[in-house]
What does this fold into?
Amino acid sequence: MPVVLEHLGKRFGDGAPVLDDVNANIEKGEFVALLGASGCGKSTLLNIIAGLEAPSSGALEVPSDGAAFMFQDAALFPWLTARENIELALKLRGVGKAERRAKAQELLELVHLGAAGDKRPHELSGGMRQRVSLARSLAQDRQLLLMDEPFAALDAITRDLLHDELERIWKETGRTIVFVTHNVREAVRLGQRVLLLSSRPGRVVQEWAVTEEHRTDAGLAGQLTGVITARLREEIRRHAK
Amino acid sequence: MPSNPTPLAESEPVVEPVETREHVHAALTRTSTGNEDLRELESGLDSLQSDAERKHRIDWSRILLPVAALVVLVLIWQFYVSLGVKRRDLVPGPLDVMGQMGLLWNEGKLQEAMWTSLQRGVVGFIISVAIATPVGLLLAQVAPLRRAFGPLISGLQVLPSVAWVPAAIIWFGLTDATVYFVVFMGAIPSIINGLISGVDQIPPQYRRVGTVLGASRLQMALQVILPAALPGYLGGLKQGWAFSWRSLMAAEIIAVGGTIGFGLGSLLDQGRVLSDMSVVMSAILLILGVGILIELLVFAPIEKRLLRSRGLLAGSTR
It folds into this structure.
């Protein structure tokens, strides 16, 4: 089991806890959507799983080789071309020079950008940048891939396409993916499981399984979206004064 | 957008529920019908959303406008001189100065002075860069060092490097060491400062990416921090060059004789001693000319390339 979170808590300084008693098990090869309103500590939780921050309490089990990470903005280095950005990830992982080039091209092909490798990030559209960023996180070659609202800033059509793209790549590569989002539709569209995180403190309050029927039957998916949205709203309303 | 029409849609006579169903469908379930379809859709979007390649042509206004400005200034100068307000030997006209430069050229003095100064300036600048870059990186990356030495470095940048000339003469005598010392004291702090401010302006996201990708401290400095700080660093280098050139001239004007070679500053001082205004003006124009040439031929192309490759040039007046 690649990720186990037990009674995980996090507070910054003396402030109120951001995360409190978070429990979750994520299986190998699973696609989990972590859903919550803005400011519920989703990103903090992701940073803790990635090892970028330490939890204040509780225990967690993550793969020993760490996790790949994809940010909300593509965060590509502007002084490198798309290919070089991917090659840098391979280089920092210790892949030899000759192999880097071939591997980078392979990853570019995987995200359907084989012909755009020599472009600079500013010459690419937002969706293309995000695909390069995805290829770069795949270049890290970690079993666990953490994604922090990677499609939040994209237009609707591009986002829909990237959902298809991500699903395809997940199936092809067998990665374990933890996908953070505040978008219920996105969570239902992508996740095999949707975990709802409460706000202040963040805690897993409910979870739903999304089956293959939900992927093909829009009515069923719409129903589930409605149920989760209602629960999320209830959670947000709790904070009204 | 191709989406699979449900068989239900064709058989049902009522349109409304079908529409809502289609609407929900597009966002919640797969939008493409297969790998081929996905690839096509994506490449369509990609070509719609990327800019077409733009051709770069030679922009003549870039050359003609500065030349025109220069001509206008020379004409004003000539006009002022021909009014005869001041004596000709105190305010020589453009033609007199040109003539003097020709004389100096024939004597070989102009070439000698130019070569000596340029060589010193460039060597001094390169050594300054080699010293300032690692020091700057270290200061920018190690907080206690930065806190300890930051104010001193900023202070050194404010201190006019001419102030070091007397000290240097006492320490090193009238040798090249004096000239180089003054150049270093001028250039090194400004390059360090440029690099530090370049590092300060790096988006924090880049460091996080570096960490996530597993960069070591050294890899982070060389593969992430330094390239990310390059625009600011280049600004520091430009200023560093300006400071070395100025410091060099100051040193050459003040420290004359000994084993110090004959540079442009020395030429200027010689003109002063001989009260030959046309030599003084020639020297000033040559010092200015070298500065402009280095900027135009070395720094401007590098800067332009750097900014263009990062997409930072759009909309600027450069």
